[in-house]
Design goal:
- Helices cover 53% and strands 18% of the residues.
- With 336 residues, the protein is an alpha+beta fold.
- It has 2 domains: 157 residues, no CATH class; 165 residues, Nucleotide cyclase, GGDEF domain (Alpha-Beta Plaits).
- The strands form 2 sheets. Strands 1, 2, 3, 4, 5, 6, 7 and 10 form an 8-stranded mixed β-sheet that branches. It has a two-stranded antiparallel sheet with strand order 8-9.
- α1 crosses α6 and α2 packs across α4.
- Pfam families: Guanylate_cyc.
Length: 336
């Protein structure tokens, strides 16, 4: 692969991968990994697959490094003393693998585009050594930034309410999605669609974090978020709508959003949220009118005495999983 078209020569990449990312050459078989880590071969294989990597063709294929041995040994410190705890260990590996795979795909695209472009801009044909050095520098910078971001997010997560020590927490759950995104995306070129999605993600993330909430996940044209209380959640939603309206002045194609909120006990599992409250928030998003915020009874009860907000109670609606779902429109109170 040549740097002049934004790609990176494969030989240089292979060398950096082996030396900088894999912790050295591949020198162990799966059987040897099991022996060195003290983890049975079958469990080591399950952990490997759960992390999102293809299984070696056989237990005797030399495919693993010192870092792989250390990782399997680290998982073993979770001390699975029962089938249930072993399943939890595998689930943890799967969640970690999925999150890291998505992050790595973005980082790999960034490196191939940016590094290749910089090398080409310098003029002439860069040597393989120059390519390897550029890749290694980029990897080092991204690794430092990744550690920094993880530490800050860990500090923020630990500072939130985890006093119960259980899997269930009382939270505000919200969804926001772009109205008519599927139809709109059909006639936008890739650059226009990228600008649209980046504006949506940046705008919603700023509103969420600005009121003490946190993003659970972005899925295309939708963001799922959480907040400690209904008041913060309502302000997040109203700020989102206002910010999207402002963005539409610069980007005519920017569609309106609709937001659904629900408050109550939710199951927290590997950074995601589950339960009836989550389902209600999703259903309310689906029936909300463009530019509006709908909340459930739980959130409405928490917001009823908020002097800055007004609630308009709507008729019950029938949605998937709920025969009579009550909803309420939240708006900012107009000052005279």
């Amino acid at each position: 692969m040549c740097c002049t078209d934004g790609m990176i020569e494969s030989g240089g990449l292979t060398a950096v991968v082996e030396q900088s990312l894999l912790g050295g050459p591949r020198r162990y078989t799966r059987t040897q990994v099991a022996e060195l880590s003290g983890v049975p071969v079958d469990r080591a294989r399950k952990l490997w697959v759960a992390l999102g990597f293809p299984a070696a063709a056989s237990d005797d294929e030399v495919a693993f490094t010192d870092n792989d041995v250390a990782a399997v040994r680290a998982f073993a410190t979770l001390n699975p003393t029962s089938v249930a705890s072993e399943h939890s260990q595998i689930a943890a590996a799967r969640t970690l693998g999925q999150a890291m795979a998505r992050l790595a795909e973005w980082q790999a695209d960034l490196i191939t585009r940016e590094i290749g472009g910089h090398l080409a801009a310098d003029g002439g044909e860069p040597t393989p050594e120059a390519r390897r050095e550029a890749i290694a520098r980029a990897i080092a910078v991204l690794a430092d930034l990744q550690d920094y971001a993880w530490q800050r997010h860990m500090a923020a997560a630990l500072s939130r309410s985890h006093e119960s020590g259980g899997a269930t927490r009382q939270l505000l759950v919200g969804f926001a999605d772009m109205v008519g995104y599927t139809r709109l995306s059909r006639h936008l070129d890739p650059d226009e669609l990228t600008e649209l999605l980046e504006t949506f993600e940046a705008t919603t993330t700023e509103a969420i974090t600005g009121h003490g909430g946190w993003v659970i996940k972005n899925v295309g044209d939708e963001v799922m978020f959480a907040a400690e209380n209904a008041r913060d959640g309502a302000r997040i939603a109203l700020d989102m709508n206002a910010a999207i309206s402002r963005a539409a002045q610069a980007i005519p194609e920017m569609p309106q959003i609709r937001v659904g909120l629900a408050y109550g006990p939710v199951l927290t599992r590997f950074g995601d949220l589950y339960g009836t409250v989550v389902n209600i928030a999703a259903r309310l998003t689906g029936v909300a009118r463009p530019g509006t915020v709908l909340v459930d009874d739980g959130a409405a009860a928490e917001l009823d005495d908020d002097a800055d907000l007004t609630l308009r109670h709507l008729r019950s609606v029938r949605v998937k999983g709920f025969s009579r779902l009550r909803s309420h429109v939240v708006r900012e109170r107009k000052r005279r």
